[in-house]
Each structure stands twice: as C-alpha cells, then as structure tokens.
Amino acid sequence: MIDLHYSATPNGQKIAIMLEEIGDPYRVISYDIFEGDQLTAEFGRINPNHKLPAIVDHAPAGSGEPVTVFESGAILQYLAEKSGRFLPASGAARAATLSWLTWQVAGLGPMGGQASHFLRYAPAGQDYATERYTKELTRLLTVLEKRLEKSAHVAGDDYSIADMAIWPGRASAFVMGPGLDEWPAMRGWFERIRERPAVARAMARDELKAPAKYIGRHQALDEKEWSNMFGDANHAAVKDD
After folding, report:
1. Which among 67, 57, 50 is positioned nearest to 22, based on CA atoms?
2. In this structure, are strands 54-57 and 2-6 parallel, antiparallel, or unpaired?
C-alpha cells in the first residue's frame, strides 16, 4: 500500500495518474493547503519542504522499511523504476524521458506556477512580474508544441512519465489563461492522453478532484489563507521542524 499525501493541484494529479497506470494500491491522504494542513510538524517529517505531493511506500521493492519520497519528479521516477513501466531502462529513450521530465519540473512547472500566482493571487500593480512569467510560460509552451509536432508523445513514440508530468498542468490551463486552442499539436496529444483509462479514473475519482475554492481565474484569500500559502505561517513551518 502506498500513502499518497495529496492536494488537488497538477503536481498531485500527476502522481495519482501514475498510481492508476501502474495499478499499485494507494490511499489518498488529502490536505487543505489553504487551511495550512501541510505545515504541521508531522507532515514535515515526511517532506521537510512542506509541499505536496509526497508518498510513503509501505511495500517497497525488496521489502524492508517504508520508503518516503517527495518532489513530484522524484516520485514519478521512483514509481517507474519500482514498476518497470513508463521509463526506459537505458539508452537514448531513457535519457529523453528524464530530460523532458526535468524540463517540466525545472521549467514549465515553476514558470506556470509563477504565472498562475501573479494572475490569480497577487495584489494589483504587479504588471512587470505578470508579463515576465506569462511570456516565459508562452515560450515554454512553444517549445512543447514544436516537440509534439514531431513526436506522438513528449519523450518519443511511447507514453511515459514525462507525459504524466506535463498533462495535468495543461488540463488546468484555463485557470492561468493559455488554453489549448492555439496549440494544435498539444491539443491532439492532450486528447490522446485524456482517453487513457487510468487518466480518466484519476480525474473522475471524487477524493482527487479539486474543491471549488481552488478553482477560478482570480482568487481572494483571507489573511489566514494567504499566510498559510505564501506568508509567515508557510515560512515558520520550516523553521520549527
């Protein structure tokens, strides 16, 4: 059994998709990040960075003590290596998969997150930052579009953890602004993955769906929610562990 410590963000959804794909039994432990559930000392012992998702694998390969993994890219790689699926064992195909996975966790994900922050949460008057991050997000999406014009999947012919890493962010792209209409190759890729049974199961499972308060183009957080997400409470959690 795997415990999935989860919030319904693209980072959490990518792990749920992987767990559905490989068929490992898992239990969802949900966190309300607006309420600061992720800031407890108990969760800090699972992920010292106090960010979601994280997993605890109670049946690791070769038995032994439970294995804890945090950071979505590391979790995807761990599950791929454990299951022997969605990550080639060696050679150019493995290198391509890990390159595109790293591109997502180091580039597309953070830049999309920053664009989302300034478009959805930040106070008025942040024009420079908003323009900076939305332009970089558009540049990265152009990279992805050009790749998908040449390849059925992000890392090559075969579906992989690189696709899983990227797809949930595109599924929620309407929130940040850039949708799929202007990206025909990306739209075709998106639809092919959406039709996969494991992806459909993950997106339909009630406990994996985003609550209404997480969804919307503009978010108005109260003082406590802001502190839990971006302010003093968020910083204090790391100091206190």
Report:
1. 57
2. antiparallel
For the four alpha carbons of 24, 159, 133 and 216, in that order, the dihedral sign comes to negative
Average pLDDT value for residue range 78-85: 98
Q: Give the CA dihedral 63, 66, 68, 73, nearest 10 degrees.
A: 30
**pLDDT digits 0-9 by tens, 125-142:** 999 999 999 999 999 999
Q: How far is it, in rounded angstroms, from Cα 46 to Cα 152?
A: 36
3-state secondary structure 130-172: HHHHHHHHHHHHHHHHHHHHHCCECCECCCCHHHHHHHHHHHC
pTM over 0.85: yes
Q: Which residue has the higher pLDDT, 241 or 128?
A: 128
Instruction: Say how many Å lie between the first and final Cα of the chain, rounded.
Output: 27
Q: Specify whether the CB–CB gap between 217 and 175 falls below 8 A.
A: yes
Go through the chain and tell me how many residues it has.
241
Amino acid letter, residue 70: F
Evaluate if residue 241 carries a pLDDT over 70.
Answer: no
Strand, helix or coil for residue 189: helix
Residue with tokens 């494991």: 198
What DSSP character marks residue 69? E
Question: Buried (b) or exposed (e) across 154-171, using 16+ Cβ within 10 A?
Answer: bbbeebbbbbbbbbbbbb
Distance of CA 167 to the CA centre of its chain: 9
